[in-house]
Amino acid sequence: MNNLNRRRFMQMAAGLGLASAISNQQAMAKSNSTKIGVALLGLGGYSRGLLAPALELTQHCELRGIITGSPEKIPEWQQRYGIQDKNVYSYQNMHELANNPDIDVVYVVVPTSLHLQYCEIAANAGKHVWCEKPMAMSTAQCQRIIDVCQQNKVKLSIGYRMQHEPNTQRFMQYRTTQPYGKIQHIIAQAGYGGNGLPASNWRMQKAMGGGAMYDMGVYPLNGVRYMTGLEPIAVTARHDKSHPDIFKEVDETTYFDLEFANGLIAECGTSMVKSFSQLTMQCEKGWYQLRPMSNYTGVTGYTSDKQEFAAIKQIQQAIQMDNDALALQGQGQLLVPGEEGLKDIHVVQAIFESAAKNKRILL
Ligand code: NDP
C-alpha cells in the first residue's frame, strides 16, 4: 500500500473525531528505547484486556505499534499507549513494517484461522513473530509458519503463557526430580462455564477455529506434555453436547485420553460450558496439582504432603513477553518455539478424528 493509502487509513481514524493526541515526549521516549518494540495485530478482547496492559508492566519490551482492521479503534489506542502515527497499520499495508525499525515483533492475536496469513506477512517483513495459541488450524499451517520464519531468519514463539508461569514451572521440574516418584496417572481439564456465545462470534464458527478443543483444549493437552516431557502415542476422544441447538458447528465439550509409551494415561477434558480447571499428577508416593491450571490469575500449586504454592502476584503475560523479549536479545532460549504449537495441533487433529470415528487413533 502506498503513502496515500496509509494517509487515508489514518484520516479515517482521525475523522472519527478522536484524533491522536499523544505527547511528543511519550513518542520520543519509545523510539529511543533499547527495549524490544512490539506491534499487536488484532485489537480484540485479549489484546485490549490483557496484552496491552501487561506490556506496560514489562521491562524488556514495549507496545510501539498496532495493526488493525478497525480504524475506529486507533485513536483510543494511540492516546492510551502513546503510539505514533507511523507505527499504525492495517492488515493491507502491514507489509510496510519492513521499513519500520521501531517494530521488532508482531504479536498475532486474531482468530485462529487467520494466524498463518498474518504470521506469514510479518515474517516476510523481517519481523519476529509471537503467535497466539492455538498455533493454527492444521499441522500443515503450523509447519508453514515455522518454515516462513526460518526462511526470513526471524524467531517464532507461541503464546502459551502457562509455560512461563512460576508455579507451573516449579511442577514442570518435578518430571526430572520426581519428589513423589514416577507419575502414574494425570487428570487435566480446562473449560469455562456458560451457555455458549452468539453464532456471530468466531469461537462458535468451525472455519474460524472455534470450539472448545482449539480454544481451551490445548491447555490440558500442552499441560500434560510439559508435565511429563513426553509425547503421547495414541488418543481416544469423544464429544459431549448439552446445548446442541447452540453448538451447531463446533465442539462444546470434548474428553480425550492420551496414552504414553510407558503406559501412563492422561484423562483430559475441555469445555465451553463446563467450568473446570486442574492439572493433577498422581504419582507413586503422592500427588501434586495446579488448580486452576490455565486461568489468568490464581494458579495455585498443591501437594499431597500439604504444601501450597500461592498464586503469583505478577501478571503472567508480562512474564511471558519479557522472557520472549530477553530471548530475542540473546539472553536465554525461547521457551515455547513454533514446534510446541505444531505438536499440539498434531494431537488435536487426532482427537477430532478419534471422536468422529469413535476409535482409538495412533499418533
Ligand atoms: P476477539 O474476538 O476478542 O478479537 C479478535 C480480533 O481479531 C478482533 O477484534 C479484530 O481486531 C481481529 N480480527 C481480524 N479479522 C477478524 C475476523 N475475521 N473476525 C474476528 N476478528 C477479526 O478474540 P480474542 O482476542 O479473544 O482472541 C484472539 C486470539 O488470541 C485467538 O487466537 C485466541 O485463541 C487467543 N487468545 C489467547 C489467550 C491466552 O490466554 N493466551 C486468551 C484469549 C485469546 P481488529 O478490529 O483490531 O482488526
TrEMBL record:
<dbReference type="InterPro" id="IPR008354">
    <property type="entry name" value="Glc-Fru_OxRdtase_bac"/>
</dbReference>
<dbReference type="InterPro" id="IPR055170">
    <property type="entry name" value="GFO_IDH_MocA-like_dom"/>
</dbReference>
<keyword id="KW-0732">Signal</keyword>
<dbReference type="GO" id="GO:0000166">
    <property type="term" value="F:nucleotide binding"/>
</dbReference>
<dbReference type="InterPro" id="IPR006311">
    <property type="entry name" value="TAT_signal"/>
</dbReference>
<dbReference type="GO" id="GO:0016491">
    <property type="term" value="F:oxidoreductase activity"/>
</dbReference>
<keyword id="KW-0560">Oxidoreductase</keyword>
<dbReference type="InterPro" id="IPR036291">
    <property type="entry name" value="NAD(P)-bd_dom_sf"/>
</dbReference>
<feature type="signal peptide">
    <location>
        <begin position="1"/>
        <end position="29"/>
    </location>
</feature>
<protein>
    <submittedName>
        <fullName>Glucose-fructose oxidoreductase</fullName>
    </submittedName>
</protein>
<feature type="domain" description="GFO/IDH/MocA-like oxidoreductase">
    <location>
        <begin position="180"/>
        <end position="288"/>
    </location>
</feature>
<feature type="domain" description="Gfo/Idh/MocA-like oxidoreductase N-terminal">
    <location>
        <begin position="37"/>
        <end position="160"/>
    </location>
</feature>
<dbReference type="InterPro" id="IPR050984">
    <property type="entry name" value="Gfo/Idh/MocA_domain"/>
</dbReference>
<comment type="similarity">
    <text>Belongs to the Gfo/Idh/MocA family.</text>
</comment>
<dbReference type="Pfam" id="PF01408">
    <property type="entry name" value="GFO_IDH_MocA"/>
</dbReference>
<dbReference type="Pfam" id="PF22725">
    <property type="entry name" value="GFO_IDH_MocA_C3"/>
</dbReference>
<dbReference type="InterPro" id="IPR000683">
    <property type="entry name" value="Gfo/Idh/MocA-like_OxRdtase_N"/>
</dbReference>
